[in-house]
Specification:
- Chain A: This is SufD family Fe-S cluster assembly protein.
- The structure holds 2 protein chains of 2 kinds.
- In chain A, strands 1-3-5-7-9-11 form a 6-stranded parallel beta sheet, with no helix packed on it. Chain A has a 6-stranded parallel beta sheet with strand order 2-4-6-8-10-12, covered by helices on one side.
- The longest helix of chain A has 17 residues, at 233-249.
- Chain A has helices at 22-28, 198-206, 211-224, 233-249; strands spanning 37-41, 46-51, 58-65, 70-77, 83-91, 96-105, 110-119, 125-134, 139-148, 155-165, 171-180, 185-194.
- Mean pLDDT of chain A is 90; it is low at 12-18.
- Chain A has 4 helices and 12 strands; from the N terminus they run H-E-E-E-E-E-E-E-E-E-E-E-E-H-H-H.
- In chain A, 45% of the residues are buried.
- In chain B, a hairpin with a 2-residue loop joins strand 4 and strand 5.
- The chains are: A alpha/beta, B alpha/beta.
- The interface between A and B is medium-sized, with 23 and 31 residues.
- The complex binds adenosine-5'-triphosphate (ATP) and magnesium ion (MG).
- The site of adenosine-5'-triphosphate has 13 residues of chain B, from strand 2 and helix 1.
């Protein structure tokens, strides 16, 4: 298997390369881009997956979620080299897909989430929350494609992406793609990319918090959104700690 | 305790403070009054080290140390507290978490032991009670969704918990209803009326000064202190207005 992390790869500052370039990856890392892990969540069941725990640069998961079943997937991308996590979900009647992702890091890392949510039957719901925190020359991406087939009425699909760039050289991109063939459908998409709230930082400093501690509290609050639906308190805390440990490495 | 000498400062290249001189002794509550736009909040922010507020001249000495040389969080640890005219909302961070981290950061900087969760909650409960702020408010995110008056009361709860040596209170009374004004005023007395502490009390109204009786009153106009007197100066301002008083005394 080719290690994509070591491949020479155009950066997103090159005009001809767009983030989440599947075609580029398919040519340069053919094995990784042809492999899917597949799972099925039986009708009525709930399954919770923590992704991006392995060493591979590219991870691809394809899930079929049965009638009234629920898939929850959470991930942190925090490595210093290229990382891509793809999730393709097919939702049956009344099924739910919950996704919470955090990209965090500096250096020249590019970290991206690519999701494809197929609402194949009526009454399906999906909720995706991605938070990106970057510094240095790092990039965080979220490409979320939502497909609603003709008969999938009462679909409710929500996506929310927010990024904080701690330094000028960092970037974040998001591209929602909607393909909707049913008419009774709700699709909400929100995106915001900005800097750390300076006034909040100053207010915290005025109470005695050193900048590093203040920043950590603010980032903690920010990325917490991605894991609110993670029911296991212990696991949620571990994930928060993992992400915040990355922030501790940052020299800002 | 606080000696401000010939202080000049600008924001975005615009000069706001023009050689401001003012001394506050330990044990003193010093009221600052002045027209809108005179530079009162600017003075508060300069004392609090807010980024973007550039000191272009003069000095500020706090307990014998150069205040302007310290970072904002170092000023707090040295005992300086700034009560904001417009308290800031911090989504996702609870008051309790924020204040415990803040207090323990200050204690650490001073070489003191941190307070445990239990000790901190006890302290927070006591101070919230003093200001008649519901403990539930302290569990909520910092100032998020608080009414104007609740934000001001929350500032004073914070002051109670952090127990500073010196407080700069910027229009802490604005936005408070009549009862809340008394509660907050008495809170300021309880927390800050102390021979070892000092207060710069920025206000537009006599009604706060009826509760928190100032030892001195200064008028700040066009970026400098133009007059200092006793409590009677505030009464005269209330009756006659800035123009008349400043003309008479000129
Ligand atoms: N970012 C800025 N750029 C330029 N001028 C500014 C900026 N911030 C404040 N000022 C100006 O500085 C002056 C002093 O403002 P400041 O807020 O200190 O007044 P104040 O005395 O507190 O007034 P008030 O009684 O209304 O609270 C005002 O003229 C204001 O417009
Ligand atoms: Mg003001």
């Amino acid at each position: 298997m080719t290690d994509t992390a070591t491949l020479p790869r155009p950066t997103n500052r090159d005009e001809d390369w767009r983030y989440s370039d599947g075609k580029f990856l398919a040519e340069s890392a053919p094995e990784a881009m042809q492999t899917w892990s597949e799972i099925e969540v039986p009708a009525g069941e709930t399954r919770c997956e923590i992704l991006a725990t392995g060493e591979g640069a590219v991870e691809r998961l394809r899930v079929t979620v049965g009638k009234g079943a629920r898939l929850e997937a959470f991930a942190i991308l925090d490595k210093d080299s290229y990382r891509r996590t793809e999730v393709e979900v097919t939702l049956h009647d009344g099924a739910h897909f919950e996704f919470g992702g955090v990209t965090i890091g500096g250096g020249e890392a590019t970290q991206e989430f690519v999701t494809r949510t197929i609402h194949a039957e009526p009454n399906g719901t999906s909720n995706q929350t991605v938070r990106a925190v970057h510094w240095g020359k790092a990039t965080g991406n979220f490409l979320g494609r939502i497909e609603v087939v003709r008969d999938a009425q009462k679909t409710d699909a929500a996506q929310n992406f927010r990024a904080i760039l701690l330094e000028k050289g960092a970037t974040a991109n998001t591209k929602p793609e909607l393909e909707i063939y049913a008419d009774d459908v709700q699709c909400a998409h929100g995106a915001a990319i900005g800097q750390m709230d300076e006034m909040a930082g100053y207010y915290m400093a005025s109470r005695g918090l050193p900048p590093k501690v203040a920043r950590k509290l603010l980032v903690q609050a920010f990325i917490g959104d991605a894991f609110v639906e993670l029911a296991d308190d212990g696991l949620r805390e571990e994930m928060m700690e993992q992400a915040l440990a990355k922030l501790d490495e940052a020299e800002l | 305790m606080l000696i401000i000498e010939n202080l000049s400062a600008e924001i975005d290249g615009k000069q706001i403070l023009n050689g401001l001189t003012l001394t506050v002794e330990a044990g003193e509550i010093h009221a600052i009054m002045g027209p809108n736009g005179a530079g009162k909040s600017t003075l508060a922010y300069v004392l609090g080290g807010r980024p973007g507020y550039e000191v272009t001249g003069g000095s500020v000495t706090f307990n014998g140390k150069d205040l302007l040389d310290m970072d904002p969080h170092e000023r707090a640890a040295a005992g300086m507290f700034l009560g904001f005219q417009y308290p800031v909302e911090i989504p996702g961070v609870s008051n309790v978490q924020f204040l415990r981290e803040a207090l323990n950061s200050q204690r650490k900087a001073r070489g003191e032991e941190p307070l445990s969760g239990g000790e901190f909650l006890k302290l927070a409960k006591e101070k919230a009670g003093l200001l008649k702020l519901d403990m539930d408010m302290l569990k909520r995110n910092v100032n998020v969704g608080f009414s104007g008056g609740e934000k001001k009361r929350n500032e004073m709860v914070q002051m109670g918990i952090l127990d500073p040596q010196f407080a700069v209170l910027d229009e802490t009374d604005s936005g408070l209803d009549i009862d809340a004004l008394r509660v907050v005023g008495e809170g300021i007395n309880t927390i800050m009326r102390d021979p070892a502490k000092g207060v710069l009390l920025i206000t537009h109204y006599q009604r706060l000064l009826d509760v928190v009786q100032p030892d001195k009153v200064s008028i700040l106009a066009k970026g400098r202190i133009v007059e200092t007197g006793g409590p009677e100066l505030a009464h005269r301002l209330e009756e006659e207005g800035y123009d008349a008083v400043m003309k008479e005394d000129a």
